[in-house]
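Our preliminary data section would be incomplete without showing what the modeling component actually yields. Below, a chain of 481 amino acids is followed by its predicted structure, encoded as C-alpha coordinates that our downstream tools consume directly.
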Amino acid sequence: MPRTSSSLTQGRIWLPRDRNVEWSIKISGVDITDDVLEGEFTRSIIGGESLCRIQLIDADGDYAGRYIGGETVEFLCDLSSGTASYWKGTLDKPNKKFGATYILEVIGSHLQSQLLDVTVNAEYNGDMTCDAILKELIDDFAPTFTYTNVNASTVSPTIRWAHKPIWDCIVDLCNLASFDAYVDSNKDIHFFLRESIENTTESIVWNDTLVDILKFGADNIDVKNRIIVYGEDEQGLIIVYRTDDSASQTTYGVKEKIISDNSVKTYQQAKELADATLNDEKDKADYGEFHCLLLADINPGDLIWVVNPIQQIESQLRLVKYTTKVPSRETTAIISKEKTIPQLFRQRRLAELARENVINPYNMTNSFNFMFDDLTEMDSALSAGVTVSESKLRTVSGSASGTMVSISRSSTSTITQLHLKVVGDFTSGASYQISADDGATYESINVDELKTLTTTGNLLRLKVILSSANTTIDSISLMYK
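Predicted structure:
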Protein backbone atom coordinates (compact mmCIF):
# COMPACT_ATOMS: atom_id res chain seq x y z
CA MET A 1 0.00 0.00 0.00
CA PRO A 2 1.57 3.32 -1.01
CA ARG A 3 2.25 5.90 1.60
CA THR A 4 1.21 9.48 1.30
CA SER A 5 2.54 12.56 3.09
CA SER A 6 0.83 15.84 3.87
CA SER A 7 4.15 17.64 4.21
CA LEU A 8 4.63 19.93 1.18
CA THR A 9 7.45 22.33 0.43
CA GLN A 10 6.82 25.29 -1.84
CA GLY A 11 9.36 25.76 -4.61
CA ARG A 12 9.97 27.02 -8.14
CA ILE A 13 10.49 25.20 -11.39
CA TRP A 14 12.74 27.16 -13.78
CA LEU A 15 11.78 26.51 -17.38
CA PRO A 16 14.49 26.89 -20.05
CA ARG A 17 13.50 29.00 -23.01
CA ASP A 18 14.61 29.46 -26.58
CA ARG A 19 17.55 31.86 -26.86
CA ASN A 20 17.55 33.26 -30.37
CA VAL A 21 20.30 35.81 -29.75
CA GLU A 22 21.07 38.13 -32.68
CA TRP A 23 23.94 40.62 -32.64
CA SER A 24 26.04 42.97 -34.78
CA ILE A 25 28.78 45.57 -34.32
CA LYS A 26 29.01 48.95 -36.05
CA ILE A 27 31.76 51.55 -36.17
CA SER A 28 30.75 54.96 -37.52
CA GLY A 29 27.47 53.34 -38.58
CA VAL A 30 29.20 50.73 -40.78
CA ASP A 31 28.51 47.06 -39.98
CA ILE A 32 31.84 45.29 -39.40
CA THR A 33 30.36 42.08 -37.93
CA ASP A 34 31.74 39.76 -40.62
CA ASP A 35 35.32 40.80 -39.81
CA VAL A 36 35.03 40.46 -36.02
CA LEU A 37 37.44 37.89 -34.61
CA GLU A 38 36.43 38.74 -31.05
CA GLY A 39 34.40 41.46 -29.37
CA GLU A 40 34.20 42.22 -25.66
CA PHE A 41 31.83 44.80 -24.14
CA THR A 42 31.71 45.78 -20.46
CA ARG A 43 29.02 47.81 -18.71
CA SER A 44 28.73 48.78 -15.06
CA ILE A 45 26.99 51.12 -12.70
CA ILE A 46 28.62 54.56 -12.54
CA GLY A 47 31.77 54.08 -10.51
CA GLY A 48 33.04 51.10 -12.51
CA GLU A 49 34.65 50.79 -15.93
CA SER A 50 32.62 50.34 -19.12
CA LEU A 51 35.01 49.56 -21.96
CA CYS A 52 35.04 47.61 -25.21
CA ARG A 53 37.70 45.72 -27.11
CA ILE A 54 37.23 44.48 -30.68
CA GLN A 55 39.66 42.45 -32.78
CA LEU A 56 39.15 42.72 -36.53
CA ILE A 57 40.64 40.45 -39.16
CA ASP A 58 42.55 42.74 -41.52
CA ALA A 59 44.35 40.33 -43.86
CA ASP A 60 43.68 42.51 -46.89
CA GLY A 61 44.47 45.83 -45.18
CA ASP A 62 40.97 47.30 -45.49
CA TYR A 63 41.14 48.71 -41.96
CA ALA A 64 44.69 50.07 -42.15
CA GLY A 65 44.47 53.78 -41.33
CA ARG A 66 40.66 53.78 -41.29
CA TYR A 67 40.23 54.70 -37.61
CA ILE A 68 42.00 57.49 -35.74
CA GLY A 69 39.90 57.64 -32.55
CA GLY A 70 36.61 59.32 -31.71
CA GLU A 71 34.48 57.16 -34.02
CA THR A 72 31.16 55.84 -32.67
CA VAL A 73 31.19 52.18 -31.65
CA GLU A 74 27.89 50.33 -31.13
CA PHE A 75 27.11 46.74 -30.18
CA LEU A 76 23.53 45.77 -31.04
CA CYS A 77 22.04 42.66 -29.47
CA ASP A 78 18.69 41.23 -28.39
CA LEU A 79 16.61 38.04 -28.39
CA SER A 80 14.80 38.74 -31.67
CA SER A 81 16.00 41.02 -34.48
CA GLY A 82 19.35 42.14 -33.02
CA THR A 83 18.56 45.84 -33.39
CA ALA A 84 18.58 46.95 -29.72
CA SER A 85 21.58 49.02 -28.66
CA TYR A 86 23.40 46.98 -26.00
CA TRP A 87 26.57 49.11 -25.71
CA LYS A 88 27.47 52.44 -27.28
CA GLY A 89 30.53 54.62 -26.99
CA THR A 90 33.52 56.04 -28.80
CA LEU A 91 36.71 54.49 -30.13
CA ASP A 92 39.79 55.51 -28.14
CA LYS A 93 42.61 53.98 -30.10
CA PRO A 94 43.39 51.41 -32.80
CA ASN A 95 46.28 48.95 -32.35
CA LYS A 96 47.76 46.84 -35.14
CA LYS A 97 48.67 43.28 -34.21
CA PHE A 98 50.70 40.78 -36.21
CA GLY A 99 50.47 37.04 -35.69
CA ALA A 100 49.09 34.24 -37.82
CA THR A 101 47.20 36.98 -39.64
CA TYR A 102 46.93 40.75 -39.58
CA ILE A 103 44.61 41.96 -36.81
CA LEU A 104 43.42 45.45 -35.92
CA GLU A 105 42.38 45.82 -32.28
CA VAL A 106 40.21 48.79 -31.34
CA ILE A 107 39.49 49.85 -27.78
CA GLY A 108 36.62 52.13 -26.83
CA SER A 109 34.89 53.76 -23.88
CA HIS A 110 31.16 53.77 -23.18
CA LEU A 111 29.25 57.06 -23.42
CA GLN A 112 29.18 56.93 -19.62
CA SER A 113 32.91 57.71 -19.51
CA GLN A 114 32.31 61.21 -20.89
CA LEU A 115 31.21 62.15 -17.37
CA LEU A 116 34.87 61.90 -16.36
CA ASP A 117 35.83 64.75 -18.66
CA VAL A 118 33.87 67.57 -17.01
CA THR A 119 34.68 68.99 -13.57
CA VAL A 120 32.20 70.52 -11.15
CA ASN A 121 32.40 73.50 -8.82
CA ALA A 122 29.14 73.62 -6.90
CA GLU A 123 27.66 73.66 -3.43
CA TYR A 124 24.25 72.77 -1.98
CA ASN A 125 22.95 73.68 1.44
CA GLY A 126 20.46 70.94 2.28
CA ASP A 127 17.51 72.45 0.43
CA MET A 128 17.60 70.14 -2.64
CA THR A 129 17.21 66.37 -2.86
CA CYS A 130 19.86 64.19 -4.53
CA ASP A 131 17.77 63.74 -7.68
CA ALA A 132 17.22 67.50 -8.03
CA ILE A 133 20.95 68.11 -7.55
CA LEU A 134 21.76 65.50 -10.21
CA LYS A 135 19.42 67.15 -12.71
CA GLU A 136 20.96 70.55 -12.04
CA LEU A 137 24.46 69.14 -12.47
CA ILE A 138 23.49 67.69 -15.84
CA ASP A 139 21.92 70.97 -16.96
CA ASP A 140 24.93 73.04 -15.87
CA PHE A 141 27.88 70.78 -16.65
CA ALA A 142 26.79 67.97 -19.02
CA PRO A 143 23.93 69.34 -21.13
CA THR A 144 24.35 66.69 -23.85
CA PHE A 145 23.01 64.12 -21.37
CA THR A 146 19.36 63.77 -20.35
CA TYR A 147 17.67 62.54 -17.15
CA THR A 148 14.23 61.19 -18.00
CA ASN A 149 14.92 58.11 -15.84
CA VAL A 150 16.06 59.89 -12.67
CA ASN A 151 13.91 58.75 -9.75
CA ALA A 152 13.07 60.80 -6.66
CA SER A 153 15.25 60.66 -3.55
CA THR A 154 14.37 61.79 -0.03
CA VAL A 155 17.94 62.75 0.95
CA SER A 156 18.81 66.48 0.91
CA PRO A 157 22.56 66.83 1.52
CA THR A 158 24.75 69.78 2.39
CA ILE A 159 27.57 69.22 -0.06
CA ARG A 160 30.40 71.01 -1.84
CA TRP A 161 32.47 69.94 -4.80
CA ALA A 162 35.65 71.70 -5.95
CA HIS A 163 37.07 70.76 -9.38
CA LYS A 164 35.58 67.28 -9.10
CA PRO A 165 34.59 65.20 -12.15
CA ILE A 166 30.82 65.01 -12.48
CA TRP A 167 31.29 61.22 -12.51
CA ASP A 168 32.56 61.36 -8.89
CA CYS A 169 29.77 63.74 -7.91
CA ILE A 170 27.20 61.21 -9.15
CA VAL A 171 28.96 58.46 -7.18
CA ASP A 172 28.70 60.67 -4.07
CA LEU A 173 24.98 61.19 -4.67
CA CYS A 174 24.47 57.45 -5.20
CA ASN A 175 26.22 56.61 -1.93
CA LEU A 176 24.34 59.24 0.05
CA ALA A 177 20.93 58.25 -1.34
CA SER A 178 21.63 54.47 -1.54
CA PHE A 179 20.94 54.70 -5.28
CA ASP A 180 22.59 53.26 -8.39
CA ALA A 181 23.13 55.07 -11.69
CA TYR A 182 24.12 54.29 -15.26
CA VAL A 183 23.97 55.87 -18.72
CA ASP A 184 22.13 54.19 -21.59
CA SER A 185 22.84 54.33 -25.33
CA ASN A 186 20.75 57.49 -25.68
CA LYS A 187 22.93 59.31 -23.11
CA ASP A 188 20.05 59.26 -20.66
CA ILE A 189 21.01 58.90 -17.00
CA HIS A 190 19.18 56.30 -14.91
CA PHE A 191 19.19 57.02 -11.14
CA PHE A 192 17.23 54.65 -8.90
CA LEU A 193 17.08 53.07 -5.45
CA ARG A 194 19.42 50.11 -5.15
CA GLU A 195 17.77 46.71 -5.59
CA SER A 196 14.55 48.35 -6.80
CA ILE A 197 14.71 47.44 -10.52
CA GLU A 198 13.69 43.79 -10.97
CA ASN A 199 14.71 42.11 -14.21
CA THR A 200 11.79 39.93 -15.26
CA THR A 201 13.30 38.85 -18.61
CA GLU A 202 16.73 37.40 -17.83
CA SER A 203 18.01 35.12 -15.05
CA ILE A 204 21.16 33.19 -14.18
CA VAL A 205 19.90 29.63 -13.78
CA TRP A 206 21.68 26.28 -13.52
CA ASN A 207 21.04 24.00 -16.46
CA ASP A 208 19.91 26.98 -18.54
CA THR A 209 21.89 30.25 -18.78
CA LEU A 210 24.43 29.44 -16.05
CA VAL A 211 27.62 27.81 -17.38
CA ASP A 212 29.94 28.07 -14.38
CA ILE A 213 30.22 29.73 -10.98
CA LEU A 214 33.58 31.49 -10.99
CA LYS A 215 33.13 32.81 -7.47
CA PHE A 216 30.32 33.14 -4.96
CA GLY A 217 30.19 34.01 -1.27
CA ALA A 218 31.65 36.42 1.24
CA ASP A 219 35.28 37.47 0.97
CA ASN A 220 36.76 36.96 4.43
CA ILE A 221 39.75 39.19 3.79
CA ASP A 222 37.59 42.30 4.27
CA VAL A 223 35.94 41.19 7.52
CA LYS A 224 36.78 43.33 10.56
CA ASN A 225 35.37 42.21 13.92
CA ARG A 226 37.45 44.20 16.42
CA ILE A 227 37.33 47.97 16.03
CA ILE A 228 39.49 50.36 18.04
CA VAL A 229 38.89 54.10 17.71
CA TYR A 230 41.39 56.73 18.87
CA GLY A 231 40.24 60.33 19.24
CA GLU A 232 41.44 63.47 20.99
CA ASP A 233 39.51 65.67 23.41
CA GLU A 234 39.61 69.47 23.51
CA GLN A 235 42.60 69.37 25.91
CA GLY A 236 44.59 67.09 23.61
CA LEU A 237 44.14 63.97 25.73
CA ILE A 238 43.63 60.59 24.01
CA ILE A 239 40.17 59.01 23.77
CA VAL A 240 40.06 55.27 23.06
CA TYR A 241 37.18 52.84 22.59
CA ARG A 242 37.19 49.17 21.54
CA THR A 243 34.32 46.93 20.51
CA ASP A 244 34.27 43.25 19.45
CA ASP A 245 31.84 40.85 17.80
CA SER A 246 32.38 37.41 19.32
CA ALA A 247 30.26 35.53 16.76
CA SER A 248 32.26 36.95 13.85
CA GLN A 249 35.52 36.25 15.67
CA THR A 250 34.48 32.61 16.19
CA THR A 251 33.73 32.26 12.48
CA TYR A 252 36.62 34.23 10.96
CA GLY A 253 39.12 34.68 13.76
CA VAL A 254 40.05 38.06 15.26
CA LYS A 255 40.37 40.70 12.53
CA GLU A 256 41.26 44.12 13.89
CA LYS A 257 40.84 47.62 12.48
CA ILE A 258 42.30 50.81 13.96
CA ILE A 259 40.66 54.18 13.34
CA SER A 260 42.55 57.35 14.32
CA ASP A 261 40.39 60.44 13.93
CA ASN A 262 41.14 63.77 15.59
CA SER A 263 37.62 64.95 14.85
CA VAL A 264 36.36 62.47 17.47
CA LYS A 265 36.19 64.71 20.55
CA THR A 266 34.12 62.67 23.04
CA TYR A 267 33.95 59.07 24.25
CA GLN A 268 30.38 58.83 22.96
CA GLN A 269 31.48 59.85 19.44
CA ALA A 270 34.21 57.19 19.55
CA LYS A 271 31.69 54.57 20.67
CA GLU A 272 29.20 55.48 17.94
CA LEU A 273 31.89 55.35 15.24
CA ALA A 274 33.28 52.01 16.44
CA ASP A 275 29.86 50.39 16.81
CA ALA A 276 28.74 51.53 13.35
CA THR A 277 32.00 50.34 11.78
CA LEU A 278 31.71 46.95 13.46
CA ASN A 279 28.11 46.56 12.30
CA ASP A 280 29.18 47.33 8.73
CA GLU A 281 32.29 45.15 8.55
CA LYS A 282 31.81 42.11 10.84
CA ASP A 283 30.18 40.23 7.94
CA LYS A 284 30.45 40.66 4.20
CA ALA A 285 27.64 40.71 1.71
CA ASP A 286 27.49 38.02 -0.95
CA TYR A 287 29.66 38.61 -3.99
CA GLY A 288 29.51 36.51 -7.10
CA GLU A 289 31.03 36.11 -10.55
CA PHE A 290 29.12 33.90 -12.98
CA HIS A 291 29.96 32.63 -16.46
CA CYS A 292 26.72 32.56 -18.47
CA LEU A 293 25.28 32.25 -21.91
CA LEU A 294 24.82 35.68 -23.44
CA LEU A 295 22.38 37.70 -21.33
CA ALA A 296 20.81 40.01 -23.90
CA ASP A 297 18.28 41.97 -21.85
CA ILE A 298 20.11 43.30 -18.78
CA ASN A 299 21.19 46.67 -17.40
CA PRO A 300 23.58 47.70 -14.62
CA GLY A 301 21.91 47.70 -11.21
CA ASP A 302 19.24 45.14 -12.19
CA LEU A 303 17.98 42.79 -9.49
CA ILE A 304 18.37 39.41 -11.20
CA TRP A 305 17.55 35.86 -10.10
CA VAL A 306 20.58 33.63 -9.50
CA VAL A 307 19.67 29.94 -9.11
CA ASN A 308 21.73 26.81 -8.55
CA PRO A 309 19.81 24.22 -6.48
CA ILE A 310 22.84 21.96 -6.09
CA GLN A 311 24.77 24.78 -4.38
CA GLN A 312 21.63 25.98 -2.54
CA ILE A 313 21.71 29.31 -4.32
CA GLU A 314 18.33 30.89 -5.03
CA SER A 315 18.28 34.62 -4.58
CA GLN A 316 17.72 37.93 -6.33
CA LEU A 317 21.02 39.76 -6.46
CA ARG A 318 22.19 43.14 -7.75
CA LEU A 319 24.03 43.13 -11.08
CA VAL A 320 26.84 45.68 -10.77
CA LYS A 321 28.96 44.85 -13.80
CA TYR A 322 28.98 42.49 -16.77
CA THR A 323 31.13 41.68 -19.78
CA THR A 324 29.67 40.15 -22.94
CA LYS A 325 31.78 38.43 -25.58
CA VAL A 326 31.00 37.62 -29.20
CA PRO A 327 30.99 35.54 -31.31
CA SER A 328 31.23 33.09 -28.39
CA ARG A 329 27.95 34.54 -27.05
CA GLU A 330 28.85 34.53 -23.37
CA THR A 331 28.44 36.94 -20.48
CA THR A 332 30.44 37.20 -17.28
CA ALA A 333 28.14 38.72 -14.66
CA ILE A 334 29.34 40.25 -11.39
CA ILE A 335 26.73 40.54 -8.68
CA SER A 336 26.76 42.01 -5.18
CA LYS A 337 24.08 42.16 -2.53
CA GLU A 338 23.43 45.69 -1.31
CA LYS A 339 24.68 46.47 2.16
CA THR A 340 22.94 48.93 4.43
CA ILE A 341 25.18 51.93 5.05
CA PRO A 342 24.94 52.94 8.73
CA GLN A 343 23.35 56.34 9.17
CA LEU A 344 26.42 57.53 11.06
CA PHE A 345 28.63 56.80 8.05
CA ARG A 346 26.25 58.71 5.80
CA GLN A 347 26.34 61.66 8.18
CA ARG A 348 30.14 61.56 8.34
CA ARG A 349 30.40 61.44 4.54
CA LEU A 350 28.03 64.40 4.33
CA ALA A 351 30.21 66.27 6.81
CA GLU A 352 33.33 65.55 4.74
CA LEU A 353 31.66 66.75 1.55
CA ALA A 354 30.28 69.83 3.30
CA ARG A 355 33.82 70.83 4.35
CA GLU A 356 35.13 70.76 0.78
CA ASN A 357 36.63 74.13 -0.10
CA VAL A 358 35.06 75.41 -3.31
CA ILE A 359 37.49 78.00 -4.64
CA ASN A 360 35.70 78.70 -7.92
CA PRO A 361 31.99 78.18 -7.19
CA TYR A 362 30.78 80.18 -10.22
CA ASN A 363 33.05 78.43 -12.75
CA MET A 364 34.89 81.53 -13.89
CA THR A 365 37.32 81.00 -16.75
CA ASN A 366 39.93 83.76 -16.15
CA SER A 367 41.33 85.82 -13.29
CA PHE A 368 42.94 89.24 -12.78
CA ASN A 369 45.31 88.82 -9.81
CA PHE A 370 46.92 91.47 -7.60
CA MET A 371 49.79 90.42 -5.28
CA PHE A 372 50.99 93.98 -4.49
CA ASP A 373 54.67 93.06 -4.67
CA ASP A 374 55.16 96.28 -6.62
CA LEU A 375 53.18 99.02 -8.42
CA THR A 376 52.87 97.27 -11.80
CA GLU A 377 49.17 96.39 -11.36
CA MET A 378 48.25 99.99 -10.43
CA ASP A 379 47.44 102.82 -12.83
CA SER A 380 49.45 105.56 -11.09
CA ALA A 381 47.78 108.34 -13.07
CA LEU A 382 44.32 107.36 -11.81
CA SER A 383 45.24 106.24 -8.27
CA ALA A 384 45.59 108.59 -5.31
CA GLY A 385 46.26 108.32 -1.57
CA VAL A 386 47.46 104.70 -1.66
CA THR A 387 50.80 102.92 -1.71
CA VAL A 388 52.28 99.44 -1.71
CA SER A 389 54.62 98.43 1.12
CA GLU A 390 55.56 95.04 2.57
CA SER A 391 53.51 93.44 -0.25
CA LYS A 392 50.33 95.14 0.99
CA LEU A 393 48.07 97.83 -0.42
CA ARG A 394 47.36 100.58 2.13
CA THR A 395 46.77 104.29 2.40
CA VAL A 396 49.78 106.58 2.37
CA SER A 397 51.08 107.61 5.78
CA GLY A 398 48.84 110.17 7.46
CA SER A 399 45.92 109.61 5.09
CA ALA A 400 42.61 108.03 6.15
CA SER A 401 41.45 107.24 2.65
CA GLY A 402 42.69 106.48 -0.84
CA THR A 403 41.77 104.92 -4.17
CA MET A 404 43.59 102.40 -6.31
CA VAL A 405 42.64 101.97 -9.97
CA SER A 406 44.15 99.00 -11.75
CA ILE A 407 45.70 98.90 -15.15
CA SER A 408 43.42 97.68 -17.93
CA ARG A 409 43.11 93.93 -18.63
CA SER A 410 42.04 92.97 -22.15
CA SER A 411 39.79 89.94 -22.62
CA THR A 412 39.35 88.00 -25.86
CA SER A 413 35.61 87.68 -25.14
CA THR A 414 32.94 89.94 -23.65
CA ILE A 415 33.00 89.96 -19.84
CA THR A 416 29.57 89.45 -18.32
CA GLN A 417 30.10 88.02 -14.81
CA LEU A 418 32.72 88.42 -12.08
CA HIS A 419 33.61 86.99 -8.68
CA LEU A 420 35.86 88.94 -6.29
CA LYS A 421 38.01 87.39 -3.53
CA VAL A 422 40.13 89.49 -1.15
CA VAL A 423 42.71 88.64 1.53
CA GLY A 424 43.78 91.27 4.06
CA ASP A 425 43.22 92.92 7.46
CA PHE A 426 40.28 95.14 8.42
CA THR A 427 38.87 94.63 4.91
CA SER A 428 35.55 96.09 6.00
CA GLY A 429 37.26 99.47 5.46
CA ALA A 430 37.39 98.85 1.71
CA SER A 431 34.85 98.88 -1.10
CA TYR A 432 35.23 97.74 -4.69
CA GLN A 433 34.05 98.77 -8.14
CA ILE A 434 34.63 97.16 -11.52
CA SER A 435 34.43 98.33 -15.10
CA ALA A 436 34.39 96.25 -18.28
CA ASP A 437 34.57 99.26 -20.63
CA ASP A 438 38.03 100.53 -19.60
CA GLY A 439 36.74 102.79 -16.83
CA ALA A 440 33.97 104.58 -18.69
CA THR A 441 31.36 102.97 -16.41
CA TYR A 442 31.95 101.54 -12.91
CA GLU A 443 29.65 99.22 -10.95
CA SER A 444 29.91 98.14 -7.30
CA ILE A 445 30.92 94.56 -6.53
CA ASN A 446 30.89 92.72 -3.19
CA VAL A 447 33.46 90.18 -2.03
CA ASP A 448 32.51 86.48 -2.50
CA GLU A 449 29.36 87.24 -4.49
CA LEU A 450 28.51 86.64 -8.13
CA LYS A 451 28.33 89.95 -10.00
CA THR A 452 26.46 90.18 -13.32
CA LEU A 453 27.41 93.32 -15.20
CA THR A 454 24.89 95.83 -16.46
CA THR A 455 27.45 97.28 -18.88
CA THR A 456 29.55 94.56 -20.49
CA GLY A 457 32.80 94.87 -22.41
CA ASN A 458 36.25 93.37 -22.82
CA LEU A 459 38.54 95.92 -21.11
CA LEU A 460 38.54 95.23 -17.37
CA ARG A 461 39.55 97.59 -14.55
CA LEU A 462 39.23 97.24 -10.77
CA LYS A 463 38.84 100.17 -8.38
CA VAL A 464 39.64 99.69 -4.66
CA ILE A 465 38.45 102.46 -2.31
CA LEU A 466 40.10 102.47 1.14
CA SER A 467 38.28 104.40 3.85
CA SER A 468 40.44 103.44 6.85
CA ALA A 469 44.13 103.74 7.59
CA ASN A 470 43.93 100.36 9.37
CA THR A 471 42.89 98.51 6.20
CA THR A 472 45.58 96.56 4.37
CA ILE A 473 45.04 94.31 1.34
CA ASP A 474 47.39 91.36 0.86
CA SER A 475 46.02 90.03 -2.41
CA ILE A 476 43.01 90.20 -4.72
CA SER A 477 41.67 87.73 -7.25
CA LEU A 478 39.09 89.14 -9.67
CA MET A 479 37.72 86.10 -11.55
CA TYR A 480 35.61 86.63 -14.63
CA LYS A 481 33.96 85.09 -17.66
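Residues 340-344 have pLDDT under 50 and may be disordered. The helical segments are 130-141, 166-177, 246-252, 267-281, 343-354. Preliminary results of this kind motivate Aim 1 of the renewal.
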